[in-house]
Design brief:
Elements: E1 2-3, E2 9-10, E3 26-31, H1 37-49, E4 53-58, H2 60-63, H3 68-75, H4 93-100, E5 103-109, H5 111-119, H6 125-132, E6 137-141, H7 145-149, H8 151-162, E7 166-167, E8 171-174, E9 180-184, H9 188-203, E10 210-215, E11 220-223, E12 226-228, H10 235-246, E13 250-255, E14 265-269, H11 273-284, E15 289-292, E16 299-301, E17 322-324, H12 328-331, E18 335-336, E19 339-340, E20 342-349, H13 353-363, E21 368-373, E22 385-386, E23 388-392, E24 397-399, E25 403-404, H14 405-420
Parallel strand pairs: 3-4, 3-5, 5-6, 6-7, 10-13, 10-15, 13-14, 15-20, 20-21
Antiparallel strand pairs: 1-2, 8-9, 11-12, 16-17, 18-19, 21-23, 22-25, 23-24
The protein binds ligand PMT.
C-alpha cells in the first residue's frame, strides 16, 4: 500500500488466485475468423482475471466478427493485427511475441487455420506466430460438423497431434448453421481450465502424482426415498481437487455430490459410506495421497426398507436402529503400488476442536488432520471459505486465518508436497 502526495491510498492488486498456474504467465491468444470469435473475448477476460498477461493476435477473418478494440479494452495491450505494420515493435513482431509466450492458444481455430498450421503455410499473423514459437500450442477448433468430419480436416488434426499440438474440443452441440453436431467451440471457462491442466502437468510440483479426494456428505438409506445425511456441500473436497489439479496431479474425487466437475479431474460418484469405502480402496491402490474431506456418516440404519415407509398412527414413536459404518480413512491401507500412501483427514468439530482433532489424527494413521469448527457462520459447511488448523503427526500445528477453500487446498498440498519429497 502506498500513499501519493494527495493522500490517496493506492494498492497494487495482483490479479488472480495464488496457486493458479496461469498467474504471471504470458499467453498469446490467436483468434481466427469464425462466428465463435465473440467467445474469444470472454476467454481473454478470464485469462486476464486469472493473472495472465495476454497478447491477442487477430487474423483479418477474425476482425470481420470482432474488433481489436474489444481485446485492447480487456488486456490494456494493443492487439496484433497487421504483419506489415511499420509502427509495430522493434524487430519482427511475430518473432518477439513468439519468444515471450509461455503458451500459445488459438481459439477459435478455423479449418483453414488447422490446414495452414499443418502445412506450415504461415500466411497470416496467427499461424506465423504459431510457427515461430517454441511455446506449447493449444488449439480450440470451431467449425460446422461436416467440415470437422471432413477427411482433409481430420488429416490435419492428426498431423498436428503427432507434432504435439493439444486440442481442446470441439464439442457436440448447436452450431451456427443450425445443425447439431461436433464442431462447437468449447465454452470459454473450460478452455481456460484446460490451459491450467496443461500448465500444471507441465511444471507443477505434484505432476506425476495421483491424489484421491473424498467430498460431500454420505447418504445412508432409510428406505428408497429417505436417507440420513449432513450439511456437507462437497465444496471443500472439490476446491482441494482443483488446487491439486492446478499443481499437476492426476486427481480423482470420490464424491456424493453433483458439483460441476473441474476440467482434468475424474469423479467417481458414490452415495453411502460403504460405497465410498469400496471406491476409495480401489482408487488408492495406485495413488500417492488420500485427502478425506467428505463428511462420512458414522452410523447407518441397520437395514433399509425395500418400500417407502408409510405414515400410520401406529408409527408415531418409531425408532430407527443404527449400526456403525466402516471408517473410510482409517481402513484404507497406507501402502499402495506407488509406495506409501500419505493420508490426510479432516475433523469437523463443534467443541474442543484441537483435542478432538489430535485424537482422530492418532486413531486413523493419518499424517495430517485439518481441523475446522463447523459452528462458524463464515466458514465450514457450504461456505466458499474455511478457517482451519492443520495438525501433523510430529506435533506441528498451524492455525490458518479465514481463506478461500481453494487456498486451504493449497495450504494442505504445500505440506503434502513436502511429505512426498
Ligand atoms: O463439504 P463442505 O460444505 O465444503 O464442508 C467441508 C467440511 C466441513 C465437510 C470438511 O471441511 C470436513 O470437515 N470434513 C470432514 C467431516 C467429518 O466427517 O469429520 P469427522 O470428524 O466426522 O471425521 C474425521 C475424518 O474421518 C474425516 O476425514 C472423515 O472423512 C473421516 N471419516 C469419518 C467417518 C467414517 N466413517 N469414515 C471416515 O473416513
Amino acid at each position: 500500500m502506498t500513499a501519493d502526495a494527495t493522500g490517496d491510498d493506492t494498492a497494487e492488486v495482483i490479479p488472480g488466485r495464488p496457486g493458479d498456474p496461469l498467474r504471471g504467465r504470458h499467453v498469446v491468444l490467436g483468434v481466427t475468423g469464425s462466428i465463435a470469435c465473440y467467445k474469444a473475448v470472454e476467454v481473454t477476460s478470464r485469462l486476464v482475471q486469472a493473472g495472465a498477461t495476454v497478447d491477442v493476435v487477430l487474423t483479418r477473418g477474425a476482425m470481420e466478427f470482432v474488433t481489436p478494440l474489444a481485446f485492447k479494452a480487456i488486456t490494456q495491450r494493443n492487439p496484433y493485427t497487421d504483419m506489415f505494420d511499420p509502427s509495430g515493435p522493434e524487430g519482427e513482431a511475430h518473432v518477439e511475441l513468439a519468444r515471450r509466450a509461455d503458451v500459445m492458444l488459438i481459439a477459435p481455430a478455423t479449418a483453414a487455420t488447422l490446414s495452414r498450421l499443418a502445412t506450415g503455410l504461415a500466411e497470416d499473423f496467427v499461424t506465423l506466430t504459431a510457427i515461430a514459437t517454441e511455446a506449447p500450442l493449444l488449439v480450440a477448433p470451431a467449425m460446422d460438423s461436416q467440415m470437422w468430419a471432413h477427411p482433409a480436416v481430420q488429416a490435419n488434426v492428426a498431423t498436428l497431434r503427432d507434432r504435439g499440438t493439444r486440442f481442446i474440443g470441439p464439442v457436440e452441440g448447436r452450431l451456427a448453421s443450425g445443425r447439431v453436431g461436433a464442431g462447437r467451440l468449447v465454452e470459454p471457462e473450460r478452455i481456460v481450465d484446460e490451459l491450467r491442466v496443461y500448465l500444471g502437468r507441465a511444471g507443477g510440483d505434484l505432476a506425476g502424482r495421483t491424489i484421491v479426494v473424498t467430498a460431500g456428505g454420505t447418504r445412508e438409506a432409510i428406505d428408497p426415498v429417505r436417507y440420513i445425511s449432513n450439511h456437507s456441500s462437497g465444496k471443500m473436497g472439490y476446491a482441494i481437487a482443483e488446487a491439486a489439479r492446478d499443481r499437476g496431479a492426476d486427481v480423482v474425487i470420490v464424491s456424493t455430490v453433483g458439483l460441476p466437475v473441474p476440467a482434468g479431474v475424474r469423479v467417481v460418484p458414490v452415495s453411502s459410506a460403504s460405497e465410498m469405502q469400496t471406491a476409495v480402496h480401489r482408487e488408492c491402490a495406485d495413488a500417492d495421497v488420500l485427502i478425506a474431506a467428505a463428511a462420512v456418516a458414522d452410523y447407518r440404519p441397520a437395514s433399509a426398507a425395500d418400500q417407502k415407509l408409510k405414515k400410520s398412527a401406529g408409527n408415531a414413536g418409531m425408532a430407527i436402529e443404527l449400526v456403525e459404518n466402516p471408517h473410510v480413512l482409517g481402513s484404507t491401507p497406507t501402502k499402495s503400488s506407488r509406495g506409501t500412501l500419505v493420508k490426510v483427514g479432516f475433523a469437523a468439530e463443534t467443541q474442543n476442536l484441537i483435542e478432538n482433532a489430535v485424537a482422530k489424527l492418532n486413531e486413523r494413521g493419518a499424517r495430517m488432520i485439518v481441523a475446522n469448527d463447523v459452528t462458524a457462520t463464515d466458514a465450514g459447511f457450504g461456505s466458499d471459505d474455511n478457517r482451519v488448523s492443520i495438525l501433523d503427526d510430529r506435533g506441528g500445528r498451524d492455525d490458518l486465518p479465514l481463506m478461500t477453500k481453494y487456498a486451504v487446498g493449497h495450504a494442505i498440498l504445500d505440506r503434502v508436497a513436502k511429505l512426498l519429497t
